[in-house]
Amino acid sequence: MSSSLVLSKHKNLSITLVSKHMPGDYDIEYASPWAGANFMPVGSEGSKLRAFEKATWPELDRICSEIPEAGIHYQECKVYGRKKDEGTAVGIWFQELMKEDPWFKDLMPEFRILNKSELPPSCNTGTSFKSVCINTAVYLPWLLGQCLKNNVVIKRGIIDHISEAPSHHTAGTASIIINCTGLMACKLGGVMDSAVYPGRGQIAIVRNEPGAMHTTSGTDDGPDEAMYIMQRAAGGGTIIGGCLQHGNWDSQVDSSLANRILQRAVDICPSLVPKTGKVTELSVVRHGVGLRPMREGGIRVDKESTKHGWLLHSYGHAGYGYQSSYGSAFATEKMVLDILNKEGLKARL
């Protein structure tokens, strides 16, 4: 939807967005509703992700400050590092985020190193900065609405092979296909990217308010178990997570893991339970499972010429889809405009 919205600002493009799942759906194939979602930079030096994060932050910042109905608000983000997490699944995921002199110190507002007195007892380092948290239940419909406002045609459909995509366009054909299929890129005929795999995450949504976002570089409960807390905008509740289980397709909530997730949150952020200090004070809305669309080698954003026409790819965004969304969309926009300039097309996408 981000790519469609960015492209829809070009009046010479006729865009049809086809998707099996839409905002309002909750399905294990559809990662977006399950996400926190926030902006915590994790891109490594020279990676597409870092470039996309840099390009995305100004747009999220603008939307947050100018468009309250989009469901984004500002929150302080507190990041706690533990030396013993180096090399674990979560530690590797967050290794850039945990640095006291990170690349994003001049990107994120109000960045500072936490005093030792501000750290939880188990943590060695910490930083704080101003970021955003997104209520996905509000933001996704808003994003879809902006696409509709700009004359993007929205259709439900199931595409088994990429060659079927042009037939779903309102014109019955398309000059450019943009593949943004996330995790399903590993199963889509004509793509079948074997580097794509699920990174299972499990969360709880509670009504309690933490006062800030918190995350640690790992936990003592296992190398793939994480601790993060973020309060969604516009009454969306507080998301507590989680885990990063590579290659796990299980869609069902693990009750034992759910208990550990809640306990870890209370240990790190006692302000969640100010009356009793106990997990039982947490008011749970629901537990959930989402599958991050991971990809060995990182995000794929590129183009290729096929017998079906130009095929553009934008997938493999793992657990950072929102915070790299506009950067990816701008890169897709550039590819589309390059094709148009080269071939003089009035494109159907």
From TrEMBL:
Family indicated by similarity: Belongs to the DAMOX/DASOX family.
Annotated GO CC locations: cytoplasm
Gene Ontology biological process terms, A to Z: D-amino acid catabolic process
Binding residue positions for D-dopa: G319
Pfam families: DAO
InterPro entries: DAO, FAD-dep_OxRdtase
Positions of D-serine binding: Y228
Binding site for FAD: T181
Gene3D superfamilies: D-Amino Acid Oxidase, subunit A, domain 2 (3.30.9.10), NAD(P)-binding Rossmann-like Domain (3.40.50.720)
Lineage: Eukaryota, Fungi, Dikarya, Ascomycota, Pezizomycotina
Domain FAD dependent oxidoreductase: 5-330
Cofactor(s) required, per the database record: FAD
GO MF annotations, alphabetized: D-amino-acid oxidase activity; FAD binding
UniProt KW keywords: FAD, Flavoprotein, Oxidoreductase
Protein name as catalogued: FAD dependent oxidoreductase domain-containing protein
